Amino acid sequence: MSYFMKTLSKILLAVPLLCCGQDLVAQDMDYVRSVVKTLSAPGYKGRGYFGDGAKKASEFIAGEFKKAGLIPLNQGSYYQNFNLSVNTFPGRVDVSLNGNKLVTAKDFLVDASSPACSGTFRIFPILRSDLANTSKILEILNHAAEHFILIDNRKVLAETAEQKSAISRNLDVLKSDPSLKIKGLIIYSTDKLTWTTLTEQGSRIVLHVNRADLDPAKLTQIELNVDAELVPEYSTRNVAGMIKGSSGTDSTVVITAHFDHLGMLGKDVYFPGANDNASGVSMMLSFVKQFSKKQPKYNTVFLGFSGEEIGILGSRAFVENPLVDLRKIKFLVNFDLAGTGDEGIKVVNATIHRDRFQQLVALNAANKLLKKVEPRGKACNSDHCWFHEQGVPSFFIYTQGGIAAYHDIYDRAETLPLTAFVPFFRLMDKFFNQL
Is the pTM of this model over 0.85? Predict the structure, then answer.
């Protein structure tokens, strides 16, 4: 056989192997997309605390743990129960201004601490700048008793630091002071509508409105029917499983992601939470699949947390009642917002665990995986926080760039790009293997 034919044969033999490698990646990404699509689907009701969406998500994750053969960590169960308080909106969420019906979560949001409110009320509009003027506020309060104040919160003039402080302080008073007689507050702005979920219920209903065809100065009447219910003892749960390591030691690596999201605002509107944090769950479950086939060196614990969106309460419950010895944790990585990556990743606690961060940077550079691996200091903004407070070495890593959907109804599976998911996974796989 000629040298040319030998070379051609080697190339042709290599092609099926290359294709198979690509197929494996494609299959893995099919699984990732399937997880994101499943958890973001309407049947999971935004994975919140009304309608048991978070409970359904925990069942899905426990099912994946079981299929992969993970060891349950709580006396034969994957679940760790805990209670939280939550303000919910289980019924109607209808709002009209001057007879114009607003679309929930597109034109307006109900502040997460709002109580129920229904009826027809007058509107008394003021400007944002008026909030820096105490006499102006007192004047409007005298007129607006048992009715609504509307604040045009768009900035028109430059504000001094003193004015900003006064505006912020007085806005908080109007929102929450129980001694005020106003029925509710409307905050009109052109800012993106972003929701949350909270553990308490406030003194009055607060609405955030962004609808371009409305002139806030001409709004005189609001008609609304908003149902709200504070649930003081809502039962939810974390999910915990483990794969034994090959080292035979009790050193432990922990991989975490929260599966809860914002749930529903009324009976029809839900917040899908594809990036936040179905994407992080899909990263965690991808490592479940990886390490169930290829045994890791150290015991590897996988934790799916509920209660993150309402105050990182699930991870707090776990740290207060740990199912593993926290002193044995070699390193913990928390995945949250793993669905983009156009601009690389950001690593919280990088300035604390500098050697581990430099390890990530070096691995990324050597393998040419992500555009950037950027450091960030300490931040108690996700489930790594309580572990860090107990001295557990930990990173919280999130992707950067891409879509701006966050805590809104547009964070959907079908528009989540998963731009850098594969190189992100490969980087973290190399990192775990070097611990």
Answer: yes
